[in-house]
Structures are given as structure tokens and as C-alpha cells.
Amino acid sequence: MRAAVVKAPGPAEVLEVAEVPDPSPAEGELLIDVEFAGVGFVDTLFRAGAFALPTPFVPGIEVTGRVREVGASVTGFAVGQPVGALLNDFGRGPRAGSYAEIAVAHASMAVPLPEGADLARVAGVLVNGVTAWMALHDLARLRVNDDVLVLGASGGLGGTVSRLAAVHPARRVIGVVGSEAKRTSAAEECTDVIVATDLVAAIDELTNGRGVDVVVDPVGGELRAQAYERLAAFGRFLVLGNASGQDPALSGDAAWHGTRQLLGLSLGAVAHLVPEQVHTVISAVVDLTHRGVLREPAPSVVSLDDVVEVHRALENRTAPPKTVLAIRS
Ligand SMILES: NC(=O)c1ccc[n+]([C@@H]2O[C@H](COP(=O)([O-])OP(=O)(O)OC[C@H]3O[C@@H](n4cnc5c(N)ncnc54)[C@H](OP(=O)(O)O)[C@@H]3O)[C@@H](O)[C@H]2O)c1
Question: Which domains are present in the chain?
């Protein structure tokens, strides 16, 4: 099969589209003829070696396509059926592998898709939708009067978090973008969009100095430190990622004095521990997306052959909010 392969970690150029052996399914696994593979910032971290996978490996942790083969003891799937799957249940062992014509998924991380589902759109919402759902519902326990601040609102995870928070609904969804030029990249569902350099003053103004109830942070760095100080009493601060690569120290005493909760979630690290919960959330995210309740915009669709440019764009902050690779075009 054709796949984008990383033989040794490094810059975007190490991604090489090549012929590799077809995989076969172990017990409990599905083979998927891949139509679309979602691309996220985290894929660049695997490719660069910040998160280690044994080499050579095929990146990509979200996929849609059709069932090619059903492994032993798998029930509920038929060959040819459209499916979506997460490939980031890393606690079971090395996985990933969606940048390929054939992917292997554990059946507990796969859901059947309705006939007629938009496979590109679904491929682009799986990781971010499940992460956003677990973060907002299970960790932050979002309430209707909550004001939510979303860092990185122009990005993939930040965009989906903003849309899901608006559906819940939160009282305010305040999206933070890196520059004036990025304002239009924030989710339409944000009630307010602010530029990172104005973060402190803008939150004080929007909340009359009270602060926000929930911060969702996939960015880290200076924004993380500033947003932590703008959390209202009983506020919940969700660390979901670190696109900036900078992890500032956050004060425990500030959590104590301010009555704040600091929470983290890494879907790939815990999916195998709570497979039934993850499976239920994947189904819910697919259903909400398919019915248009979660109004995920169409992702940018590019060929597998363009994978190097996609990774470069993610790393230099010029990528569209979400990109998927069309594997068979
Ligand atoms: N917890 C989980 O399970 C989970 C799931 C999915 C993703 N993640 C993590 O979430 C983070 C974002 O992933 P993503 O796929 O949404 O990425 P993305 O689409 O590239 O979005 C990241 C956003 O962060 C903002 N940003 C601010 N400062 C940045 C900097 N110094 N470098 C790069 N971006 C910066 C960018 O917006 P501006 O340019 O407008 O500032 C960008 O839109 C990553 O760390 C990823 O690993 C975690």
C-alpha cells in the first residue's frame, strides 16, 4: 500500500510517501480502506520525535473509510461499511497509521458511520470532537451560565471546542486568536473574539473584572500564564495541549487562594483505559456532526502527496483551521 512514512524523526521533510507492506488485523482489530485522514498539530510532535513511536511508523490518528477486513472476535462491523476510527489508543501499544491506504484500528475505537456521511468532515472532527466533549462535559462540567475562554480558537481543537461550548450552551464563548488577521479564522459560534496581545484587558472588560469560569488551553506559553490569572472563583482551567512548546509554571497557591481547578486531558494517553466512554463519545460527535448540530466547517482537503506542506503550515501557523488528507485521489 501507499503511505506517508517516518523512518527517523525530524522536520516535515522526513515524511516520505512510499510503498509499504499491507497490514493485517490482530484479534479485536479492523482493517480500514482509508478515504480521509485528519491531520493535527500532534502529528507534527510524533513526526519530530517529541512523542516517541518506534520507527519506521505511519503518522495519523483519525480516519474514515470502509471496512476492509474484520479481525477475530470483532462483532458489529461488516466489510464495505463506512467507519470512522481513532488510532490514538496508545496505551495499548504503538498505533497511529492513518496516512495510508489501509489502516488498523481497534474495534472499540471505531464506529459505523451513516450511509451518506461526509467522510472528509467526519475525519476532521474525530480527535478534536472527542477531546472537546470529554474536556467540556466530563472535566469542566460546563454550565449554562459559564463564560468560556478558548485559547488557539483559530486552530483545529480550539475551533471545535468553541462550537461545542456554544451548542451546550455556555453563556459566553470567548475565542483568542494570535493576530488581527486570524479573527475570521475563529469559530463563528464565538460570542467574542479577542487578539492574544489584548487578552488581559479584554477579559477584564468582557467580564467586568470577574474573570472567566472555564479556560480551554491547547496553546501554553505566555497565554496560559495570563489566562490562569483571569480565572473566576470556582473556575476550571483545562490544559489540552501546548502548540507553543512553552509550559510556564502555574502557582498552586493561586489555585488555593483563588479557588481554581487545574485539569488536564490527553486523549491518546487514556483512551485505552476508558474505551466504552470514548466509543460513546465518538458516536455522539459523529451523530452531532452528521445532523449539523455541531456545525463543523468543511476541512481543507489535500492529497497525501502534499503531506509535507501540511505539516510545515501547522508548524508555522499558516494552516487552515483543519486539514484532511484524501488518501485515494
Ligand atoms: N488533549 C488532547 O487529547 C489533544 C487532542 C488534540 C490536540 N491536542 C493538542 O492541542 C494543541 C493544538 O492542536 P491543534 O491540532 O488544534 O493545532 P492547530 O490547528 O495548529 O491550532 C493551534 C493553534 O494554537 C495557536 N498558537 C498560539 N501560539 C502558537 C505557537 N507559538 N505555535 C503554534 N500555534 C500557536 C495558533 O493560533 P494563532 O496562530 O491564531 O495564535 C493555532 O491556531 C496541540 O498541542 C495538540 O497536541 C491535544
Answer: 2-118+298-326 (3.90.180.10), 127-267 (3.40.50.720)
